[in-house]
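Subject: sequence -> structure tokens, single chain

Hey, anyone have a minute? Need the predicted structure for the following. Not urgent.
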Amino acid sequence: MNNKILNFTLAVFVIIFSLSSCRDSTDLSDTFSENSIIQKPNETNNLIIISTDLNIGENRFVFAIIDDNQIPISIPSIKIRLTAPDQHTTSYDAQFISWPSGKTGVYVTHIYFDKPGTWSIKSSISTTPKTLSSHFKVTTESKTPKIGDVVPKSINKTRFSHPKIDEITSDIEPDLDLYRFTVKESIKNSKPILLTFSTPGFCQTATCGPQVKIISELNAKYKDKVNFIHVEIYDNPHELALHFSKRRISPIVTEWGIFTEPFTFMIDKKGIVSAKYEGFVTYGEIESDLIKMIKIDF
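Reply:
Had a minute. Here:
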């Protein structure tokens, strides 16, 4: 990865939806230039695939729809049709999920992909007479731990290993509870984990801070049953306000294959991924999956 990661919405929401950066004064465009997956609306479609880590098995599938004026379409529920490489087509419902700003959002559904290769998506909605369409690739293996995988027993930084909190997070108002445990000790103690990778202080899409806040709110409610952990994308956040060129990707980010952010994993007490979320995910969506995992684990 050569110490670079791709913010999953750099090419979509920063360019198309014109989201403001969490850092107004620094150009971060070079940070995410390598391995870029850029999808832009063209003259014939306004449907943009957001998910970039789709593989054989169960996947959270995220996409956006914009109108000809580049304004997000926010119909609460729409129908989509997915066509596999063998031309078999299946219909699904997708729900609109608002982003923290309230001005943008994405559609989310859950798909079990059974074949690798190039898939197509089509949808017809009431706001436009044309059929919206796009293509995307499904791979045999995931870049990151997939649902059902045993996760790396990572020794991430904690407030005990690094008492100076600004050395382990770029959050200006950090919840210290999110920096109590390592992944390794949580698994050793048979404790489920909700793990999020993000950089609140250096985010380009104004979703990383809100994502960590949601994790903090869930921690307040469920910390007796689940360990909640935030891993900063950069290994040296305390040096970056004045010297962003010195940024170093956290070795934990590399270990997990993370190349977009925010990225969140739900891990059961055996250290197995039970759910994963590329990009921003709401409190309600996480809590629904969390309750299911807790019922199984306890």
